[in-house]
Amino acid sequence: MDKYRCNVMLCGGTGCSAGGSLKIKEALQQGLKERGMEDEVNIQLTSCNGFCPQGPIMIIYPDDVLYQKVSPKDVTAIIEEHLIKGRPVERLLYKEPAKKQSIPTVKDIPFFNKQVLRALKNKGLIDPENIDEYIARDGYQAAAKALLEMTPEEIIEVVKDSGLRGRGGAGALTGMKWQICAQSKAPEKFIVCNRSIIEVEPHLILEGMIIGARAIGASQGYIYVRSGAPIIIERLKKALTQAREYGLLGENILESGFNFDIELFMSSDEFVCGEETALLMSIQSMRGMPTPRPPFPAEKGLWDMPTVINTVETFANIPLIIQNGAQWFRSVGTEKSAGTKIFSLSGALNNTGLIEVPMGITLKSIIDDIGGGLIKGRRFKAVQVGGSTGGYIPEQYLDVPVTYEDVTQLDAIIGSGGIAVLSDLNCMVSSAKFTIEFAVDESCGKCPPCRIGTSVMLELLNKVTTGTATEEDIDLMEDLAFDIKTTSLCGLGQTAMNPVLSTIRFFREEYLEHINDKWCKAGVCKELCTFYIDKEKCIGCGACARICPKKAISGEKKKPHQIDQSSCIQCRSCYETCKFNALKIGPRRMREELMNSDIPENSTAEESSKEVAG
Amino acid sequence: MPRLTVEDLKRIKEQHKAAFTVREGGARVKITVHMGTCGIAAGARRVMETLLSEINRQGLTDVIVTTSGCAGLCSKEPMATVEVSKEAPVKYVQLDEEKIKRILLEHINQGKVVEEFALVTGNETAI
């Protein structure tokens, strides 16, 4: 292989690909050819860097310089300035959010350097479609060790000692699950990888599954992959073909005498099929509905045979544990929650994306250090931990370590690994309602608590957001949520109530404002808010008038503006646009008062808000 | 494609070592060729090309080559800075293809600074 002086790593994750990384690659190839530099500079598409909102991302080695939001028209500058003259292209560098200072190198960008990369150790560093590059980073060494040097019992022992817990839902000990399956006597056993949604290296998943198969004695594995994720499917298909060609799947793997192969199963993208028993039904060509446990899949799973089912992230940790040992794995994380966890960080933060952090890190550190704090002008309100059915955690608990135990205490879950930050622009009641709407749509309908309960819950939440609820409804919702959580058949109904329970627990005040004052202070519930302009603060810049889709705002230049309440549709665009804090949100009744009154808008507004506040 | 054995895994890893030295860092030697307009005009491209093909020919996996802009000594171009880890950088001036080959042989492979081409020890960084 030729030695290139420079490696241009272009992110080929789903986000950056959609942002045009292929076109950038073509432009680069063309530009390098024109200058006769194609033998000096290597261009490589890589797996997802996780910094998706800043994409397309390009990292240039050996300089370790990261360029963000690259487009094909930036290519000339990158070649002329950086690749020839060694000068970074200033305008494409990452900027520190507060001071707007450029940070050229990856190792200095807090979003990256506060992470601990294990399952994602190859992100942005190798071509996910080239098995040789994976092997070059110690790939398949762990599989070789597990197949040639270890007994199944030894593999299970190491996994148990590591304390690895399932990275998907309830956090069961992976080694225990494997042991139960390994000890079951059956003519056939299966190993299943749940929903390949995280863009980790495909070969890392295959390697983890090979090791798992050897541990439990399975000869057939399945990867359950979302049919709505074409790039991931394509990469998995290529990875499977390459692994088979190299004899890393199929018969007599690495001359060990062990036989194992993996099949891709395209899922129908139903949310409930993330639940393990529903997933197994779906692979057996039956409707994706959960079944009661016990029997657990480890005893009776696919076609009634013992089946181990783990998530992508769990499998991704296995080769690392086999290679480096249980103690190494425990060197980060806490006693009961060892290792790292991948999270999808989103919401009102300066930096968002896919991150890997040590278990036990505080939410505050994730938000402030990696997330770079809240975007300018926004105030922190809550953080949702655990994906769409995770609970909302308020500010006073931000020092809580992120572990399976601590998070569960707060009605949240590690779950699918989503962390979303909510600001003053989010209404907590609406946020809880959003999850319930989702649960109503996604409930499979098998068990009544989930099927009927979620619908009733949605009606109650609708009453709150439209101002027709009473205080008693809060107690009713709490009771109902508790019952649904404890009696639903599977994780869907059990976790869907987390947002309701946590918002009532931590943001009861906001429910009461909706019910008693008919006031959604975030301006989300359209029927419970009135937008008005504070004439003391308005400087008449006209920004709100220009953004208003109904042309409801008028006023002379440099003079305070006003909103025509009869045309206002409460879209909140003006509120989000105003830089002078002159846009205010009042309770519902202000709207009629403003419409019926001849008194100048600001005085009415002040009185009204005082009245409500008092 | 043949079926792999454990030895093959090691062989493939070895083959790709050079690429990962560039990406992951940890190179023993970093050679910076100064590629300002002055350097390019004086022949820095040929020096760089010679350097790269020699490194490839010799199969060196622990040497990385990078570029930087004008060093402010335009009359002494083409120039290159050689940084062997844990040693002071050495700046070479008025290079050509033959000189860079000698530097590669004597300084990088044998550890002896080629004093007759060296300007001074010291460094300026672009990044």
Task: Please outline the helices and strands.
The complex is a heterodimer of chains A (614) and B (127).
Chain A: E1 6-11, H1 14-18, H2 21-34, E2 41-46, E3 58-61, E4 65-67, H3 75-84, E5 94-95, E6 102-103, H4 110-113, H5 131-136, H6 141-148, H7 152-162, H8 174-183, E7 190-194, H9 202-216, E8 220-226, H10 230-245, E9 261-267, H11 276-283, E10 307-311, H12 312-324, H13 326-330, E11 340-347, E12 353-358, H14 363-370, E13 380-385, E14 391-394, H15 404-409, E15 418-423, H16 428-442, H17 448-466, H18 471-487, H19 491-496, H20 498-506, H21 508-517, E16 530-533, H22 543-547, E17 553-554, E18 562-563, H23 573-577, E19 583-586, H24 589-596, H25 601-613
Helix pairs in contact in A: 6-9, 6-12, 7-8, 7-9, 9-12, 16-17, 17-18, 18-20
Chain B: H1 6-15, H2 17-24, E1 29-34, H3 37-42, H4 44-58, E2 63-68, E3 80-84, E4 90-92, H5 97-109, E5 118-121
Parallel strand pairs in B: 1-2
Antiparallel strand pairs in B: 1-3, 3-4, 4-5
